[in-house]
Amino acid sequence: MNEQVISDEDELLEDLQSTEAAVRKKAAEELGYMTTSDDQEVIALMDVMQNDCEDKVREMAYWALSSPANLKIISQHPEWQARVHAPGSGVQKKMLWWQNLLVKLKLR
User: Fold this and answer.
1) Euclidean distance between CA atoms 87 and 38, whole angstroms
2) C-beta separation of 15 from 24 below 8 A
3) 3-class DSSP state for residue 100?
4) Tens digits of per-residue pLDDT, 17-46?
5) I need a labelling partner for 6 at 20 to 30 A (CA). Which of 36, 44, 51, 67 fits?
């Protein structure tokens, strides 16, 4: 991807609330590329993953949550891990991938 990564987390978190699906999807993608994260970002991405009306936006939020920075935070909150894998989260098929990644990163 040749596009420049936006570094302003606050702007990206605002974009997750856009009325345009493409803007929400791009914001989730950019948040996934960030090398640092915080609880606010992870919570916002989990909300998008579970509640967005567009499949592609939910999938991108899930992808962003799988970044090393976000996985590190999620691994510190078992209730968040359960939320990501909750029935209806739309990502049950990817659960084995998620678990394998946690093991590889030794965050579990």
Assistant:
1) 25
2) yes
3) helix
4) 999 999 999 999 999 999 888 999 999 999
5) 51
Structure tokens at 38: 């915080």
Query: DSSP for 19-88?
Result: SSHHHHHHHHHHHHH-S---HHHHHHHHHHHHH-S-HHHHHHHHHHHTSHHHHHHHHT-HHHHHHHTSTT
In this prediction, residue 93 carries a pLDDT of 46
Verdict on whether the full-model pTM lies above 0.90: no
- What is the amino acid identity at position 18? S
Query: Among positive and negative, which fits the CA dihedral 19, 22, 25, 31?
Result: negative
CA-angle at 105, arms to 65 and 33, nearest 5°: 35
Q: Which residues, at least 6 apart from 26, have a Cβ–Cβ distance to it below 8 Å? A: 15
Task: Please answer whether residues 102 and 108 qualify as being in contact, where contact means their C-beta atoms are separated by less than 8 angstroms.
Answer: yes
* Residue showing tokens 């990502």: 91
